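Go through the following before class.
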Amino acid sequence: MEKPAKKFPACPVETTLVLIGNKWKVLILRDLILGTKRFGELRKSLGGVSQKVLTTQLRDMEEKGLVSRKIYAEVPPRVEYSLTGLGASLKPVLDAMWEWGEMYKKSIAVRP
């Protein structure tokens, strides 16, 4: 039996927010744009994220086709995460967020 197609909001901005609209997902994307990472590397880079929250966010992003997970048959098991082509296509969005954040910080710094 086929899964029914998920309904997305009519507004494309809202659709993007549905997919990546929380702090952890955006930061996961930021880290994975630089290349493949192991779970521990992501957790360390993200700082205050719990193991449970990181696992939940990665699974959701994998389900939505943004992240791929590769499991190696080793003891202990090694798992690596990387962006899919669809996930990597968000780079211009993150670049724009970076630029805007830099501009905002500079504008606040010059306020009287």
